[in-house]
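Mods, move this if it's the wrong board.
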Amino acid sequence: MYWTNYHSHSTFCDGRSEMEEFVKLAICKGIISYGFSSHAPLPFSTKWAMKEEAFAAYLSEFERLKTVYGSEIELYFGLEVDFIPNCSDIDSKFFKDKSFDYLIGSIHYLDKIIDNQYFCIDGDFEEFDKGVKTVFDGDINAAINSFYDVSLLMIQKGGFDIVGHFDKIALNGIHYKEFDINALWYKQRVAEVFQLLKEKGLILEINTKSLFKKGFTYPHQEFYPLINELQIPIVVNSDCHYPMNVIDGYEPTFAALKKAGFRNMQRLVKGKWLEVAFDNNGLLY
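Not the wrong board. Structure tokens:
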């Protein structure tokens, strides 16, 4: 039995420890395949994205760690790429001369609020609410519809391997009485995006970052049966920012996935995505 994790952040972006500390904890926790996915640089200032000038050091440190720990753990090199219409995507100039083992496509921002400032759907609720009021006249359901419109655009565009924290807007959306994840219109939007994701052959991340604190994963456990029914390939990631969280939420999530009917998930093996069986205690050889 073993674990994998392909969504992690270090001090090269908003992570709280050096890359090597994550590798050491990953080995201790039984992870045999681990990927680094710092937030890719953006064309505006943020508190979490990597600076473009830091990329060379990021790559150099990865190569050093692969040399030092390569006999104990498979290490992979990636980035989490923000999709922002008419602002940032995989076709941005930054990516033109670079190669990666994999990329995660995620959405953290929606429409522009003012020049060079975008509505952030992640993190602090006060800022989120300000964005809903500024961009969507306080209509949370309009904001959520926009999020899934952008998700469709991102998936249609492609260029990455994994769809990251699929329904992250629900993190703050659930605080509005007007929003209900069980509403028919919401389930239809989610199903619409899942269908396109399946058609494009992308991997869906089951992100465990908020499980212990909030009680749910991204996508929400409510949607596991539908994901399984559509036979969308999945991977479980912890989206860790601290080394101690490299497998946070894994055991209950693996158990919930098994209960929903899943039998396999994706794993990078010698640089290629392969389907591997799992049970409640991890992946199986």
